[in-house]
Sequence to fold (843 residues):
Amino acid sequence: MSQYVAPVRDMLFVMQELAGLADVGALPGWEEAGAELAEAVLEEAGRFAGEVIAPLNVVGDREGSRLVDGKVVVPAGFAEAYHQFVEAGWGGISSPEAFGGQGLPQLLAKPVTEMWKSACLAFSLCPMLTQGALEALLHHGTPEQQNAYLAKLVSGEWTGTMNLTEPQAGSDLSAVRSRAMPEGDHYRLFGNKIFITWGEHDVTENIVHLVLARLPDAPAGVKGISLFVVPKYLLNADGSLGERNDVQCVSLEHKMGIHGSPTAVLAYGESAGAIGYLVGEPNRGLEYMFTMMNHARLAVGLEGVAISERAYQQARDYARERVQGRALGHESAGAIIRHPDVRRMLLTMKSQTEAMRALAYVTAAYMDQAARHPDPAERARYQSRVELLTPVVKGWCTETAQEVTSLGVQVHGGMGFIEETGAAQHMRDARIITIYEGTTGIQANDLLGRKTLREQGKTLLALIEEMRTDTARVGALDGEAFRQLAAAQDVAIKELEGATRHLIEAATVDPRLAFAGAVPYLMLLGTVCGGWQMTRAAGAAQARIAAGETAAFYRAKIDTALFYAEHILPRAMTHAYVVQHGARSTLALDESAF
Amino acid sequence: MKIVVPVKRVIDANVKVRLKADGSAVDSDNAKMSMNPFDEIAVEEAIRLKEAGAAGEIVAVSIGSDACQDVLRAALAMGADRALLIRTEAVLEPLAVAKLLREVVAREQPRLVICGKQSTDGDANQAGQMLAGLLGWPQATFASKLDLGTDGATVTREIDGGLEIIAVTLPAVVTTDLRLNSPRYTTLPNIMKAKKKPLDVVALDEFGVDTRPRLTTLGLAEPAARSAGVRVADVAELLAKLKNEAKVI
Ligand SMILES: Cc1cc2nc3c(=O)[nH]c(=O)nc-3n(C[C@H](O)[C@H](O)[C@H](O)COP(=O)(O)OP(=O)(O)OC[C@H]3O[C@@H](n4cnc5c(N)ncnc54)[C@H](O)[C@@H]3O)c2cc1C
Fold:
């Protein structure tokens, strides 16, 4: 069984050197969020993640959540750990102080989220969905709804769910059919929701469902969907728990991974109709969902970072212990970490994990700047960065995690394929993350359509300029490594720019030609952004070394950046080639020829 | 009843300790540092006493560089009320530490000092005993259970042959053993609150205590690497080896 040791060192490095922790700490209301607090918070969260949550990972996978006599039974230890989690107040890290949270910036909250996800992805989904429900009510709920639910959701005493998906409505939510019939000051909901994460359990005394449904007179399509809050137990006038609402868990799914997380089919209105309350205005439900999307998608992107980190730690530890064969240049048989190819696999895992982490945290810091920068023009600029990078963090980090967790199995050899080892679990668990919260295809459409073509690449081209400035700065540092890094990065940036201009052009000819390259384009942008961050990281590490710091950590950062530049960045050329030349063949085949 | 808890910043228990390349000292540059685990147990015990209504204010004290503020903040986040850092860049011997703590006791007037039984770096297991000696207070070392009354305490001690239960009058010095309690996980709200709790920094010189070293380190060496094991054919061979080679039976 593998241990998880939170990579606090790398996290703090990224926060301080790449994501601008000091700048975020200078924003109004976040003066306390400095390096000292960040370190204290990360140390303690890391300890909790490693000691309390990480041991649940294997148990959760083996036992899974099960439906027994109509009740959801969660794996051994999950409920106790959840109560400890609530007790320790981690759920409210970035929630408003008015409702009992700590109001810390995303740049502090997201690394902590990464730890829960590394420790046990299935467990971490419960607080994540609660966060989603909480934000829906925070931004769009009435003061009464906020008073009724928010404090309990912030503390985690109650959990929350997001009910969007129906059998015929997944990627395309305009097809939602659940109905809401007005009745006095509330509504009665009818319909079936599927794949609802942590949709039913007895770990907490109540569950707050956020549900998409249609009003009787609603227009068809996206503009006719409303958002409702539907508690599992209705609340009495004094806030105490009242009657059981008419929402039932019909079944739990049998899944490829994240077995610990109960994925529920929920039936609303089997008898009189589930009582729900409208959140915000009628017919604006999908719009509200979109306002919260950035947070949720960034969080799932972090799952890519988190599970890659866990897989890497396990593979590295195994590679140090497993003795097999005499490596070139060695006298006798030794640990497999000596073999060049094992080093290549480990560095492919490590370098991409660090690159992903950097891009995810930088995006989190942009969110903080977009929320609180005193200058409205700057806020808008950061917001457009967030909009642009969110689908990249979600799509690229989760896709890359497939490669990283698969390599984690490969490093273990035959033992990797054996379930007891635990390496396979990371690969199976990782498989969902490119699917939920919008598939990679949907992320790529968003990146290309809304975030690039709609504004003729304005935000992206400005980002490219910033990448060039940063690259030139690092390239000018003393040392061959920095020249090499900058040269590789420059080539990749040029490919990105070329592909971007090509897509803007192609879309005017036939949008299908552009969208055929949407996912390769997303991977291109992710790969180049990763290189940009690793280049910056190498520059920052060099500055520390120049300032007299001796830690091997900084030397390793530069070497890891070089590996990324030589092994991963060249993929940018392939992606760019596909974007520019691969559309016609994608579209050529007649549907009957498949 | 006020309690003073000394806490030391040491290399984290999970770090594999190495010597510097030139063998001059332990390489603590960039190693992860944490609160000495026995001191963590001491802080936890003090907080439990406070929560049970048996103790009042808890003052955490550390001696060392500014970096020690992080372990003091950690103690504050666990639940200590105030912290004091006696600032020095020097590495002090247990007697110097005990003398400084005697001065702290003189200023703070606690009824109880709870120390870790030893620190995981020096492993001397002396400071608590020396402090009790200097103060002329009773000492109860290696505590695995502590019942506090108003005038005295009953302490269960872990000794080689088993457990020993003793009564001490207050004021007293108690040193903690591993099984006294398991320290709690610090809550996020308490980490935030700790930032606002008072942490005083006083230069070592202000105490007018002679802390000059009395020991000279002649050399440092890493423990010999464990040599490979051997496989024995049967129980008879095992017994023979234990008897003749290891000489343990
Ligand atoms: C374990 C698990 C947990 C989940 N948790 C929740 C939850 O808590 N709440 C909730 O509401 N939902 C949840 N979901 C549902 C999840 O969000 C959807 O499964 C997902 O959005 C995809 O929808 P779908 O399954 O209908 O696939 P489809 O939409 O049918 O997609 C099938 C394929 O077609 C592609 N595709 C579809 N449309 C397009 C397009 N326009 N352009 C290009 N490609 C396209 C997709 O990329 C995909 O490859 C969960 C699902 C799972 C498996």
Notes: DSSP finds six helices and eleven strands in chain B. Helices of chain B lie at 37-51, 69-78, 94-108, 127-135, 188-194, 235-244.
